[in-house]
Structures
1.
Amino acid sequence: MPESLCPVAEAVTHMNPSPPKLLVIGGPTASGKKKLSLLAAERFGGEIVSADSRKVYRRLDIGTAKPSLEDRARIPHHLIDIVDPDEQFSAGEWTRLAAEAVKGILARGHLPIVSGGTGFYISAFREGLSDGIAPDPDVRRRLERELEEHGPESLHARLDAVDPVRASELPHGDTVRVMRALEIFETSGMTVTELRNRPKTTGGRYDCLFIGVGMERPLLYRRIDERVDAMVRAGLVDEVKSLLNEGYDRGLVALDTVGYREWFSFIDGAEPFKTCLDMVKHNTRRYAKRQLTWFRNRPGVKWIDCGDKNAADRVLDDIGIWLEKR
C-alpha cells in the first residue's frame, strides 16, 4: 500500500532534505515519562506533543494526570484540553493535529517531543493508519460489554449506520468482524470501506529516537498505588461527580476510563469507598501491564529504567549525542 504524508509533514520534508529530528518518549502510566519529557524539553529547547487519548478531553484533569499549569506555562504543551468529553475524537484526528503541531515546533527551531502512554497514537503517527490498524484494547472491551448488554443486533445496527457497505457484507452473527469494523471506525475516524481505498497516512518522515520508560514491575505498581492515593487527595472523586452533574453520560468514551468509571458505584451508594479505591488501583496496574507489553513489542525502542536514579542523566546525554548527529 502506498504511503502518503499529512500535507503539513510533507511540506517539512520537502523543505529539509534530511529528516528532521523527532524525540518520542513512551511507556506505562506512572513510569516517569512526564518528568523525562520536561527535562529533555528544558535542556534541548523542546516542546511537548501529548500522545494521550484522555488528556485531549477538557475537565478530565486529575484522573488523567495532566501536567500542571505551571509546567505548561514553562514548557509549551500541545494536544491537551482540545475537545469536550462528549465530542468524538479519533486516532486519525490526533495524527493530523500532531503533524500540524510538530510542523509548528520545527518552524520555531525547537525539538518536537511526542510523549505519552497511548501507544496506538504513537504507532499511528510513526507507522500510519490503514486497514491494518492495530487493535485498541479499551475500545474492544467497551464493544464487548455492549455485546453482552444489548446483543449482536445492536452492534450490527451501529455498523450499518456508519458503514452500510461493510455491514451488508457481514451477517448479524459475525460479531468478531462487526466489532472489528466498529473498532476501526472509533479509533481512526474512518470506515473499513473508506480505508480500503485510502493510502496509509503517517505524521511524517523523521529521524526518530524512541525512548521507552520503564522500571521493575513491583516498583511501578507501588508508584501507581501512590499516585492513585494522591489523585484522590487532590479531589478525583469530586471531579467525577462534577462531570456527571454537568450531564455527561457515563457511557461516553471519555468517562469509560480507568480512574473514572470505578467511582460510579460509590457515587450511587452501591459500593463503599475502599472497594472502589482498590478497584482503581487494580485496573490501573492492569492497564500499565498492557501498556508495557505493547511498548516492549515495538521495534527500535531504547529502554531506560527510571527506577535507577542516574538513568535520566544518562539518557539525556544520549539524546544530546543523537541531536548532534546529522
2.
Amino acid sequence: MAVLSLEYQNRILTIPFTGTPILGELLAQQGIQGFSPCGGMGKCGKCAVVLKGSVSAPSQAELNFGTRC
C-alpha cells in the first residue's frame, strides 16, 4: 500500500491508498475541500505539488503537457 504524506494547515497528514487515485478525490475523502477551484482542469495552479520519494515515470502526455496528471 502506498502512502501520501503532506503538510496541511501546519500539520503532517499521512493518507494510505491503493491503486492510482486522483489526488483531488483522495484529499476530498479526507475532508480537504477547495483543492482545485478550476475543477481539475490544471488552469489555476492551486493543485501544484512537489513529488518526493518513489513515483512512477511521467507518461508521454504528461511530458507533453509539462505537468503530472
3.
Amino acid sequence: MAEVNKVKKVPLRKCVVTNEQHPKMEMFRVVRTQEGSVVLDATGKVRGHGAYVCKKKSAVLASMKKKILDHHLETVVPENIYNEMLEILDKEGIK
C-alpha cells in the first residue's frame, strides 16, 4: 500500500486591524484574561478573550491610535502591551 503524505492544515486568523488572514503563529495574540488583565500571549494558550494583530508596525500603531484592541477586548489595553509588540518587531527587524 502506498504511503499518503498528510499535509497538516495551518490555522489562519484574521487581523483585527487590517482584516487580512495570516497563519496563527505569525501574529500577535492579545488576551483579556478572566481576571480582567490584558496580556500579550506568545504561546497561544492563555485562557480568555483574544484578538490577533498581524506583525506589522503600521498595524500595531494603527491599533494603538484608533483603540481597535480596546474595542475588540472590551477593556482598556495598557500602553506597555503596544510597546512590547513594537520591541518584538524591532528585534525581528520587521517594518
